[in-house]
């Protein structure tokens, strides 16, 4: 999974534990994926949960596990990646746990 470089620290510290990807994406629970921040591989993550959600159904908990405080900040970030979207837009929410040498970071 690729992230902007600015998310490196929040990924490594476990503050960012979820990502929203526009559309239906094919991630599987239990899958181990490479995590890249900017152009740097920072580790591996294990997929804990995958669900499909409309933007209007994104709640406070979803925003917090994205490593953000407000839904409007999350929307601004997603718009910078995907362009305009509306309340009906479908996202794949991927909840993950960073790993270190096959073990948890903490």
Main traits of this protein?
single chain, 106 residues, alpha+beta, 6-stranded mixed sheet, 3 helices, 22% helix
Descriptive report:
The protein is α+β, with helices and mostly antiparallel strands and 106 residues long. Helices cover 22% and strands 39% of the residues. Strand 3 (32-37) and strand 4 (40-54) form a beta hairpin. Strands 1, 2, 3, 4, 5 and 6 form a six-stranded mixed sheet that branches.
Could you give the topology of this structure?
Elements: E1 2-3, H1 8-12, E2 18-22, E3 32-37, E4 40-54, H2 60-65, H3 71-82, E5 90-100, E6 103-104
Parallel strand pairs: 1-3
Antiparallel strand pairs: 2-5, 3-4, 4-5, 5-6
Brief write-up:
The protein has 106 residues and is α+β, with helices and mostly antiparallel strands. Helices cover 22% and strands 39% of the residues.
Specify the overall morphology: globular
Report the β-strand fraction as a percent range. 35-45%
Count of helical regions: 3
- Count of strand segments: 6
Give the ordered list of helices and strands: EHEEEHHEE
**Whole-number radius of gyration?**
13 Å
Give the % helix.
Answer: 10-25%
């Amino acid at each position: 999974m690729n992230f902007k470089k600015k998310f490196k620290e929040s990924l490594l510290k476990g503050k960012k534990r979820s990502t929203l990807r526009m559309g239906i994406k094919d991630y599987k629970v239990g899958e181990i994926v490479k995590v890249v921040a900017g152009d740097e591989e920072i580790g591996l993550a294990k997929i804990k949960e995958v669900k499909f959600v409309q933007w209007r159904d994104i709640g406070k908990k979803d925003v917090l596990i994205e490593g953000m405080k407000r839904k409007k900040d999350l929307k601004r970030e997603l718009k910078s990646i995907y362009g305009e979207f509306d309340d009906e837009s479908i996202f794949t929410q991927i909840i993950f746990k960073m790993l270190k040498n096959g073990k948890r970071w903490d």
